Amino acid sequence: MTTAASIRRRRSARRIVRDVAPKVLVYLLLLPLTFFIIMPFAWMVGSSFKPIGSGIKFPPQFIPNPIVFTNYPLVFKTIPFLMYTRNSLIVTLTVIVGEVLSASVVGYSFARLRFPGRDFMFVVLLATMMIPYPVTMVPTFIVFKILRWVDTYLPLTIPAFFAPPFAVFLLRQFFLTVNRELDDAAKVDGCNELRILFQILMPLSKPALTTVAIFSFTANWNDFLGPLIYLSSARMYTLALGINYLRSFRGGGDLAPQMAAAVMFSLPCIVLFFLGQKYFVQGIVTTGLKG
Protein backbone atom coordinates (compact mmCIF):
# COMPACT_ATOMS: atom_id res chain seq x y z
CA MET A 1 0.00 0.00 0.00
CA THR A 2 2.75 2.40 0.94
CA THR A 3 4.64 1.62 -2.23
CA ALA A 4 1.53 2.17 -4.40
CA ALA A 5 0.78 5.47 -2.66
CA SER A 6 4.38 6.56 -3.10
CA ILE A 7 4.26 5.75 -6.80
CA ARG A 8 1.03 7.75 -7.20
CA ARG A 9 2.58 10.74 -5.42
CA ARG A 10 5.65 10.62 -7.64
CA ARG A 11 3.50 10.42 -10.77
CA SER A 12 1.38 13.29 -9.55
CA ALA A 13 4.50 15.38 -8.83
CA ARG A 14 5.91 14.63 -12.29
CA ARG A 15 2.58 15.55 -13.87
CA ILE A 16 2.53 18.85 -12.00
CA VAL A 17 6.11 19.62 -13.01
CA ARG A 18 5.32 18.72 -16.63
CA ASP A 19 2.29 21.03 -16.67
CA VAL A 20 3.76 23.92 -14.67
CA ALA A 21 7.32 24.04 -16.02
CA PRO A 22 6.42 25.29 -19.54
CA LYS A 23 4.22 28.03 -18.08
CA VAL A 24 6.97 29.12 -15.68
CA LEU A 25 9.44 29.23 -18.57
CA VAL A 26 7.07 31.33 -20.67
CA TYR A 27 6.54 33.81 -17.84
CA LEU A 28 10.28 34.04 -17.20
CA LEU A 29 10.79 34.92 -20.86
CA LEU A 30 7.92 37.43 -20.88
CA LEU A 31 8.96 39.29 -17.74
CA PRO A 32 12.01 41.01 -19.31
CA LEU A 33 9.93 41.94 -22.37
CA THR A 34 7.21 43.34 -20.10
CA PHE A 35 9.82 45.45 -18.32
CA PHE A 36 11.05 46.99 -21.57
CA ILE A 37 7.48 47.69 -22.68
CA ILE A 38 6.34 49.27 -19.41
CA MET A 39 9.53 51.19 -18.68
CA PRO A 40 8.96 54.04 -21.21
CA PHE A 41 5.43 54.58 -19.91
CA ALA A 42 6.65 54.51 -16.29
CA TRP A 43 9.38 56.99 -17.21
CA MET A 44 6.78 59.28 -18.81
CA VAL A 45 4.53 59.20 -15.75
CA GLY A 46 7.44 59.71 -13.36
CA SER A 47 8.86 62.60 -15.38
CA SER A 48 5.48 64.36 -15.33
CA PHE A 49 5.88 64.81 -11.56
CA LYS A 50 9.43 66.17 -11.66
CA PRO A 51 10.27 69.83 -10.99
CA ILE A 52 10.97 72.11 -13.93
CA GLY A 53 14.52 71.63 -15.17
CA SER A 54 15.12 68.23 -13.57
CA GLY A 55 14.49 66.38 -16.83
CA ILE A 56 17.95 67.24 -18.15
CA LYS A 57 19.88 66.20 -15.07
CA PHE A 58 22.69 63.65 -15.38
CA PRO A 59 22.57 60.94 -14.27
CA PRO A 60 18.85 60.80 -15.01
CA GLN A 61 16.54 60.45 -12.02
CA PHE A 62 13.89 57.76 -12.49
CA ILE A 63 11.84 58.45 -9.37
CA PRO A 64 10.97 62.16 -8.99
CA ASN A 65 12.35 63.83 -5.91
CA PRO A 66 10.59 65.99 -4.87
CA ILE A 67 7.22 65.11 -6.38
CA VAL A 68 5.40 68.15 -7.77
CA PHE A 69 1.91 68.44 -9.26
CA THR A 70 2.29 71.81 -10.94
CA ASN A 71 3.11 70.46 -14.40
CA TYR A 72 -0.46 69.43 -15.13
CA PRO A 73 -2.03 72.85 -14.44
CA LEU A 74 0.90 74.38 -16.36
CA VAL A 75 -0.14 72.46 -19.49
CA PHE A 76 -3.61 74.03 -19.38
CA LYS A 77 -2.08 77.49 -18.88
CA THR A 78 0.41 77.11 -21.74
CA ILE A 79 -1.83 75.66 -24.48
CA PRO A 80 -5.64 75.46 -25.00
CA PHE A 81 -5.64 71.80 -24.03
CA LEU A 82 -9.43 71.39 -23.84
CA MET A 83 -9.96 72.98 -27.25
CA TYR A 84 -7.40 70.66 -28.83
CA THR A 85 -9.06 67.70 -27.08
CA ARG A 86 -12.44 68.71 -28.51
CA ASN A 87 -10.95 68.95 -32.00
CA SER A 88 -9.38 65.50 -31.69
CA LEU A 89 -12.67 64.01 -30.52
CA ILE A 90 -14.53 65.55 -33.47
CA VAL A 91 -12.08 64.07 -35.96
CA THR A 92 -11.66 60.71 -34.25
CA LEU A 93 -15.34 59.98 -33.60
CA THR A 94 -16.29 61.01 -37.14
CA VAL A 95 -13.65 58.67 -38.56
CA ILE A 96 -14.85 55.78 -36.37
CA VAL A 97 -18.42 56.18 -37.62
CA GLY A 98 -17.22 56.36 -41.22
CA GLU A 99 -14.94 53.34 -40.95
CA VAL A 100 -17.46 51.11 -39.19
CA LEU A 101 -20.30 51.90 -41.59
CA SER A 102 -18.36 51.80 -44.87
CA ALA A 103 -16.16 48.84 -43.95
CA SER A 104 -19.21 46.86 -42.79
CA VAL A 105 -20.99 47.31 -46.12
CA VAL A 106 -17.91 46.51 -48.21
CA GLY A 107 -16.84 43.64 -45.96
CA TYR A 108 -20.33 42.17 -46.17
CA SER A 109 -20.30 42.33 -49.96
CA PHE A 110 -16.95 40.52 -50.12
CA ALA A 111 -18.02 37.90 -47.57
CA ARG A 112 -21.63 37.14 -48.54
CA LEU A 113 -22.32 38.29 -52.09
CA ARG A 114 -21.19 36.53 -55.25
CA PHE A 115 -20.27 38.73 -58.21
CA PRO A 116 -17.73 38.53 -61.05
CA GLY A 117 -14.20 39.50 -60.04
CA ARG A 118 -14.94 39.49 -56.32
CA ASP A 119 -11.77 37.71 -55.24
CA PHE A 120 -9.60 39.73 -57.61
CA MET A 121 -11.04 43.00 -56.32
CA PHE A 122 -10.43 41.87 -52.75
CA VAL A 123 -6.79 41.12 -53.55
CA VAL A 124 -6.44 44.57 -55.15
CA LEU A 125 -7.97 46.09 -52.02
CA LEU A 126 -5.44 44.31 -49.82
CA ALA A 127 -2.62 45.34 -52.16
CA THR A 128 -3.39 49.01 -51.47
CA MET A 129 -2.35 48.41 -47.86
CA MET A 130 1.20 47.82 -49.09
CA ILE A 131 1.53 51.32 -50.59
CA PRO A 132 3.50 53.52 -48.14
CA TYR A 133 1.72 56.70 -47.06
CA PRO A 134 4.59 59.00 -48.18
CA VAL A 135 4.07 57.76 -51.76
CA THR A 136 0.49 59.06 -51.87
CA MET A 137 0.96 62.02 -49.53
CA VAL A 138 1.79 64.67 -52.16
CA PRO A 139 -0.79 63.72 -54.83
CA THR A 140 -3.46 63.40 -52.15
CA PHE A 141 -2.61 66.84 -50.81
CA ILE A 142 -2.86 68.29 -54.34
CA VAL A 143 -6.32 66.76 -54.76
CA PHE A 144 -7.56 68.15 -51.45
CA LYS A 145 -6.06 71.55 -52.23
CA ILE A 146 -7.93 71.64 -55.56
CA LEU A 147 -11.12 70.76 -53.66
CA ARG A 148 -10.30 73.60 -51.20
CA TRP A 149 -10.42 71.23 -48.26
CA VAL A 150 -7.07 72.30 -46.80
CA ASP A 151 -7.35 73.76 -43.29
CA THR A 152 -10.58 71.83 -42.69
CA TYR A 153 -11.28 68.47 -41.11
CA LEU A 154 -12.56 67.02 -44.40
CA PRO A 155 -9.20 65.52 -45.54
CA LEU A 156 -8.91 63.82 -42.15
CA THR A 157 -12.46 62.44 -42.00
CA ILE A 158 -13.95 61.93 -45.48
CA PRO A 159 -11.51 59.14 -46.56
CA ALA A 160 -12.83 57.02 -43.68
CA PHE A 161 -16.22 56.83 -45.44
CA PHE A 162 -14.60 55.02 -48.39
CA ALA A 163 -13.91 51.68 -46.67
CA PRO A 164 -10.32 51.59 -45.33
CA PRO A 165 -8.76 48.27 -46.44
CA PHE A 166 -7.65 47.04 -43.02
CA ALA A 167 -11.13 47.51 -41.51
CA VAL A 168 -12.69 45.81 -44.55
CA PHE A 169 -10.32 42.86 -44.15
CA LEU A 170 -11.13 42.41 -40.45
CA LEU A 171 -14.89 42.60 -40.92
CA ARG A 172 -14.91 40.45 -44.04
CA GLN A 173 -12.99 37.70 -42.24
CA PHE A 174 -15.36 37.89 -39.28
CA PHE A 175 -18.47 37.81 -41.46
CA LEU A 176 -17.18 34.58 -43.01
CA THR A 177 -17.41 32.91 -39.59
CA VAL A 178 -21.14 33.64 -39.25
CA ASN A 179 -23.41 30.80 -40.37
CA ARG A 180 -24.95 31.49 -43.79
CA GLU A 181 -28.16 29.76 -42.74
CA LEU A 182 -29.05 32.96 -40.88
CA ASP A 183 -29.03 34.80 -44.21
CA ASP A 184 -31.25 32.18 -45.82
CA ALA A 185 -33.73 32.32 -42.94
CA ALA A 186 -33.84 36.12 -43.13
CA LYS A 187 -34.42 36.08 -46.89
CA VAL A 188 -37.34 33.68 -46.40
CA ASP A 189 -38.85 36.30 -44.07
CA GLY A 190 -38.40 38.96 -46.75
CA CYS A 191 -35.21 40.70 -45.58
CA ASN A 192 -33.02 42.38 -48.16
CA GLU A 193 -29.22 42.48 -47.99
CA LEU A 194 -29.05 45.72 -45.98
CA ARG A 195 -31.47 44.45 -43.35
CA ILE A 196 -29.47 41.22 -43.09
CA LEU A 197 -26.30 43.24 -42.54
CA PHE A 198 -27.62 45.79 -40.03
CA GLN A 199 -30.18 43.67 -38.16
CA ILE A 200 -28.50 40.26 -38.11
CA LEU A 201 -24.78 40.32 -38.85
CA MET A 202 -23.74 43.54 -37.15
CA PRO A 203 -25.36 42.69 -33.78
CA LEU A 204 -23.47 39.38 -33.94
CA SER A 205 -20.22 41.13 -34.87
CA LYS A 206 -19.66 43.24 -31.77
CA PRO A 207 -16.12 41.82 -31.20
CA ALA A 208 -15.02 42.68 -34.74
CA LEU A 209 -16.72 46.09 -34.72
CA THR A 210 -15.12 46.91 -31.35
CA THR A 211 -11.73 45.87 -32.71
CA VAL A 212 -12.15 48.14 -35.72
CA ALA A 213 -13.29 51.01 -33.49
CA ILE A 214 -10.33 50.64 -31.11
CA PHE A 215 -7.81 50.47 -33.96
CA SER A 216 -9.44 53.48 -35.62
CA PHE A 217 -9.54 55.52 -32.42
CA THR A 218 -5.90 54.79 -31.58
CA ALA A 219 -4.63 55.54 -35.09
CA ASN A 220 -6.53 58.81 -35.51
CA TRP A 221 -6.11 60.04 -31.94
CA ASN A 222 -2.33 59.60 -32.27
CA ASP A 223 -2.15 60.91 -35.83
CA PHE A 224 0.37 63.75 -36.05
CA LEU A 225 1.35 63.83 -39.71
CA GLY A 226 -2.17 64.24 -41.11
CA PRO A 227 -3.11 67.33 -39.05
CA LEU A 228 0.38 68.73 -39.62
CA ILE A 229 -0.13 68.56 -43.40
CA TYR A 230 -3.72 69.77 -43.69
CA LEU A 231 -4.30 72.11 -40.73
CA SER A 232 -2.78 75.57 -40.60
CA SER A 233 -5.08 77.45 -38.21
CA ALA A 234 -4.16 77.04 -34.55
CA ARG A 235 -7.82 76.87 -33.52
CA MET A 236 -8.22 73.77 -35.72
CA TYR A 237 -5.28 71.83 -34.26
CA THR A 238 -5.85 68.38 -32.87
CA LEU A 239 -4.32 67.42 -29.55
CA ALA A 240 -1.46 65.45 -31.10
CA LEU A 241 -0.41 68.55 -33.02
CA GLY A 242 -1.24 71.09 -30.32
CA ILE A 243 0.87 69.61 -27.53
CA ASN A 244 3.87 69.79 -29.84
CA TYR A 245 4.03 73.50 -28.99
CA LEU A 246 5.09 72.62 -25.47
CA ARG A 247 8.52 72.00 -26.99
CA SER A 248 8.92 75.78 -27.26
CA PHE A 249 8.00 76.35 -23.61
CA ARG A 250 10.63 78.53 -21.90
CA GLY A 251 12.83 78.77 -24.93
CA GLY A 252 13.51 75.16 -25.80
CA GLY A 253 11.00 73.00 -24.03
CA ASP A 254 11.12 71.43 -20.62
CA LEU A 255 10.62 67.71 -20.22
CA ALA A 256 8.22 67.79 -17.26
CA PRO A 257 5.30 69.72 -18.87
CA GLN A 258 5.69 67.70 -22.07
CA MET A 259 5.47 64.44 -20.14
CA ALA A 260 2.42 65.69 -18.22
CA ALA A 261 0.70 66.50 -21.52
CA ALA A 262 1.74 63.11 -22.91
CA VAL A 263 0.20 61.31 -19.92
CA MET A 264 -3.14 63.08 -20.40
CA PHE A 265 -2.90 62.49 -24.14
CA SER A 266 -2.41 58.73 -23.62
CA LEU A 267 -5.22 58.23 -21.11
CA PRO A 268 -8.17 58.01 -23.59
CA CYS A 269 -6.49 55.19 -25.55
CA ILE A 270 -5.67 53.29 -22.35
CA VAL A 271 -9.18 53.70 -20.92
CA LEU A 272 -10.79 52.72 -24.23
CA PHE A 273 -8.68 49.58 -24.49
CA PHE A 274 -9.56 48.41 -20.99
CA LEU A 275 -13.26 49.13 -21.52
CA GLY A 276 -13.31 47.18 -24.78
CA GLN A 277 -10.65 44.62 -23.89
CA LYS A 278 -13.08 41.69 -23.79
CA TYR A 279 -14.46 42.36 -27.26
CA PHE A 280 -11.05 43.39 -28.60
CA VAL A 281 -9.34 40.13 -27.63
CA GLN A 282 -12.32 38.10 -28.81
CA GLY A 283 -12.30 39.91 -32.15
CA ILE A 284 -8.59 39.33 -32.68
CA VAL A 285 -8.88 35.62 -31.79
CA THR A 286 -11.92 34.87 -33.94
CA THR A 287 -11.11 37.03 -36.98
CA GLY A 288 -9.95 34.84 -39.83
CA LEU A 289 -11.27 31.57 -38.39
CA LYS A 290 -13.81 30.41 -40.92
CA GLY A 291 -16.44 28.19 -39.33
Multimeric status of the protein: single chain
Average pLDDT works out at: 84
Head-to-tail CA distance between termini: 51 Å
Count of separate structural domains: 2
Q: How are helices and strands ordered from N to C?
A: HHHHHHHHHHHHHH
Portion of residues within helices: 55-70%
Q: Give the count of helical stretches.
A: 14
The assigned structural class equals: mainly alpha
Chain-wise SSE layout:
Layout: H1 2-47, H2 71-78, H3 81-112, H4 118-127, H5 133-146, H6 154-157, H7 165-175, H8 181-188, H9 193-204, H10 206-221, H11 225-230, H12 239-242, H13 255-275, H14 277-286
Task: Write a structural description.
The longest helix has 46 residues, at 2-47. The relative contact order is 0.14. This protein is mainly α and 291 residues long. It is 69% helix and 0% strand. The protein has helices at 2-47, 71-78, 81-112, 118-127, 133-146, 154-157, 165-175, 181-188, 193-204, 206-221, 225-230, 239-242, 255-275, 277-286. It has two domains: 2-47; 71-286, MetI-like (MetI-like fold), CATH 1.10.3720. Helix 2 packs across helix 13 and helix 10 (206-221) packs across helix 14.
Distinctive features:
disordered C terminus; 14 helices; mainly alpha; MetI-like fold; 291 residues; 69% helix
Summarize the structure.
69% of the residues lie in helices and 0% in strands. By secondary structure, it is mainly alpha-helical.
